[in-house]
Design a protein that fits this description.
- This protein folds into two domains: 93 residues, no CATH class; 56 residues, no CATH class.
- Helices cover 76% and strands 0% of the residues.
- It starts with a helix and ends in a 9-residue tail after the last helix.
- 1% of the residues are buried.
Length: 150
């Protein structure tokens, strides 16, 4: 299997696991306030992250991480926090289906940001695909968002 195929399989796995989060989170958010939920979820991830770093990245020294990398990490943390807060406050207010549909904007926004910020090349075929995603979202949500189940 080529590296590109492995990347696609891993990307699909990431998408599938993240897709499961909305129904699980929506159920949990009925009983746990958003910031408490965020704290508990991140504390739950911490042992797995530390274990992965210890097993797979044992030879990486924190001192070797550059200032630019630290800046990127800080930006990542801030974006992740703001996104997580928006996620936790949006989920109880809209249906999981509409949340997932709006999530389809991620490749559109991510593709545009990769082009603008990273100088990644975007082909005509990719632009057409991103436009189809955006148009599909407009069509799917045109009648107005479905209300969240009570």
């Amino acid at each position: 299997m080529t590296a590109s195929m492995v990347g696609c399989v891993l990307a699909f796995g990431a998408m599938a696991f993240y897709a499961v989060l909305e129904p699980l989170s929506k159920t949990s958010l009925q009983n746990i306030p958003p910031f408490t939920f965020m704290t508990l979820a991140l504390l739950g991830v911490l042992p797995f992250a530390l274990g992965g770093a210890f097993v797979f990245e044992r030879d990486v020294a924190m001192a070797s991480i550059t200032g630019k990398a630290w800046g990127g990490l800080v930006a990542f943390v801030l974006c992740n926090f703001v996104g997580y807060v928006c996620y936790l406050y949006a989920l109880p207010r809209i249906s999981v289906i509409n949340f997932q549909l709006i999530g389809l904007l991620a490749p559109v926004v991510g593709g545009l940001l990769a082009w603008v910020l990273l100088g990644e090349q975007v082909s005509a075929r990719q632009i057409i695909g991103l436009a189809i995603i955006a148009l599909g979202l407009v069509v799917a949500l045109r009648g107005g968002p479905v209300q969240a189940a009570k």
